[in-house]
């Protein structure tokens, strides 16, 4: 009898230990999005926070219900990896970028392809809508350029050239006046949207700069890099303000929270981490994926985050 009691006590101790670890920092995975048959390359919330869009190496993009995790729509047409996918601000369209050198605009309700944007020669590595929904910016990988497109006409408006290596990422400022691009040349460049003129160069990373994103007030930019760091920059001066160090492998994605007080990063070390912008201190460490985290995003209210992974899943985390 004492032996049985000992085993029960030991089991109880293990259970409590594991439970405490899973619930550490009051964070739990609320939804696991399963359905893709290959690496999930990107994930983002709709502007109302009710849906999620994912892009995958299985050549599809998919829309999911953010509360139930139910798949709502599948977009098929790309002949190679869907590297990037995002909603238009009004939620009525989706834009995707693929390894087949094309970007495509889709109607969310019907799933019908509305426009095909062709011009990049070596695959599209990133894609994003402007905040008014009238333009799209694409990063062109090995052709070392980014392009700005008119959504309605599907016409190229500007070509942004200046990087000396692959362009990895491109994003608009919230006012639409600027674009930031990141590159394997270890820099990020800030551009004037109207003229296509280079305004600022962010220099300091010692590895490829994988992503670059504006804060909502457009005063800061956060970059992620293969050098295992994320860095926060002043847009006006181009000065590095803060270096976020702690990941043990390449940082593949970084974004600001909606209020600009936090940064979320995703890494090849299989974790996502939340940082304080002001101090640079690590606040939370999200570990549940079994393979590298390639893309991260906050929900519009800042209460949830989503992570996309090489383990073929995306996961929604509740921060409250």
Features:
1 helix; 4-stranded antiparallel beta sheet; disordered N terminus; globular; Methylamine Dehydrogenase, Chain H; 320 residues; mainly beta
Report on this structure:
This protein has 1 helix and 28 strands. It has a single domain, classed as YVTN repeat-like/Quinoprotein amine dehydrogenase (Methylamine Dehydrogenase, Chain H). It is globular, with a radius of gyration of 20 Å. It is mostly beta strands.
| Cα distance spanning the termini | 43 Å
CATH architecture name: 7 Propeller
Shape: globular
Strand ordering within the main sheet: 1-28-27-26
Largest sheet: 4 strands, antiparallel
Secondary-structure-derived class: mainly beta
Look at the structure and give the CATH class: Mainly Beta
Mean pLDDT, rounded to whole units? Answer: 92
Number of domains: 1
Order of helices and strands: HEEEEEEEEEEEEEEEEEEEEEEEEEEEE
- Sheet-strand content, in percent, reads over 45%
CATH superfamily: YVTN repeat-like/Quinoprotein amine dehydrogenase
Secondary structure tally, helices? 1
Computed over alpha carbons, the radius of gyration is 20 Å
Could you tell me the CATH topology label: Methylamine Dehydrogenase, Chain H
Number of strands: 28
Helix content class: under 10%
Low-confidence stretches: 1-25
């Amino acid at each position: 009898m004492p032996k049985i009691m000992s085993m029960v006590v030991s089991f109880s101790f293990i259970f409590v230990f594991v439970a405490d670890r899973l619930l550490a920092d009051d964070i739990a995975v609320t939804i696991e999005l399963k359905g893709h048959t290959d690496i999930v390359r990107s994930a983002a919330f709709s502007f109302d926070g009710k849906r999620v869009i994912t892009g995958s190496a299985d050549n599809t993009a998919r829309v999911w219900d953010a509360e139930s995790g139910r798949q709502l729509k599948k977009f098929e047409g790309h002949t190679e990896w869907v590297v990037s996918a995002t909603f238009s601000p009004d939620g009525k369209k989706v834009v995707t970028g693929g390894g087949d050198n094309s970007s495509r605009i889709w109607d969310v309700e019907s799933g019908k392809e509305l426009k095909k944007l062709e011009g990049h020669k070596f695959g599209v590595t990133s894609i994003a809508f402007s905040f008014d929904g009238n333009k799209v910016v694409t990063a062109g990988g090995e052709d070392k350029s980014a392009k700005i497109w008119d959504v309605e006409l599907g016409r190229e408006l500007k070509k942004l050239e200046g990087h000396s290596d692959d362009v990895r990422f491109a994003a608009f400022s919230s006012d639409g006046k600027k674009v930031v691009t990141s590159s394997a040349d270890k820099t990020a460049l800030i551009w004037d949207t109207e003229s296509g003129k280079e305004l600022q160069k962010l220099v300091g990373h010692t590895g490829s700069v994988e992503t670059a994103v504006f804060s909502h007030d457009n005063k800061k930019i956060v970059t992620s890099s293969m050098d295992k760091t994320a860095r926060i920059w002043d847009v006006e001066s181009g000065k590095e303000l803060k270096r976020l160090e702690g990941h043990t492998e390449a940082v593949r994605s970084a974004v600001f929270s909606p209020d600009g007080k936090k940064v979320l990063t995703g890494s090849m070390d299989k974790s996502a981490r939340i940082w304080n912008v002001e101090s640079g201190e690590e606040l939370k460490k999200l570990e549940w994926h079994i393979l590298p985290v390639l893309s991260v995003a906050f929900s519009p209210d800042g209460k949830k985050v989503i992570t996309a992974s090489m383990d073929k899943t995306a996961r929604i985390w509740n921060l409250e």
